Amino acid sequence: DGGITQSPKYLFRKEGQNVTLSCEQNLNHDAMYWYRQDPGQGLRLIYYSQIVNDFQKGDIAEGYSVSREKKESFPLTVTSAQKNPTAFYLCASSSYGTGQYFGPGTRLTVL
Amino acid sequence: DAKTTQPTSMDCAEGRAANLPCNHSTISGNEYVYWYRQIHSQGPQYIIHGLKNNETNEMASLIITEDRKSSTLILPHATLRDTAVYYCIVREQTNTDKLIFGTGTRLQVFP
Questions:
Q1: pLDDT digit string (tens) for B65-109?
Q2: Do B41 and A88 touch (CB under 8 A)?
Q3: Beta strand pairing status for B61-64 and A106-110?
């Protein structure tokens, strides 16, 4: 089945630790995105990538880092510099003429 | 800031049509109207999009006014599983473009 997978679904970390969220797609989409969602709010863009080995900052990139070494993969690292990392993180992908297809999300809780 | 305005919440009886309005008075000529929905604690799901003509697919219909300043998403026979937050978004149709999510309309379908 084609789609986007994110793992894990739930993640708990201690304050001050870096954590990496996984996102994989087998849709052959060129572009991939990371969003953050806080309770009762819409999604906000963290980073996006149009092509392998290239990515751009979104609206709230501070405290986050990404890589795009493979077309299928776009991992997000939440660093200790992110002041309020507890949130629901969503990955998406798209190609020209399609809507963005979203993964199931990872709920990160920093203790 | 989101370029669209939607009611905060709506109710609909199961089996009836759900008509969700969206205002996008500042839409430009090359911007499409996209609709997504997000069921609680899941990733958003693409529903439909259009430029100026009405569109229909297996999920919904999209009616866009002639001046393109507003649109309506129609779920012809709402079911309990259609309870979700519905987001109306305007964007250019390019390979990559960030989606600016507002707070959407929370649709509650009741028995």
A1: 999 999 999 999 999 999 999 999 998 766 566 678 888 999 999
A2: yes
A3: unpaired
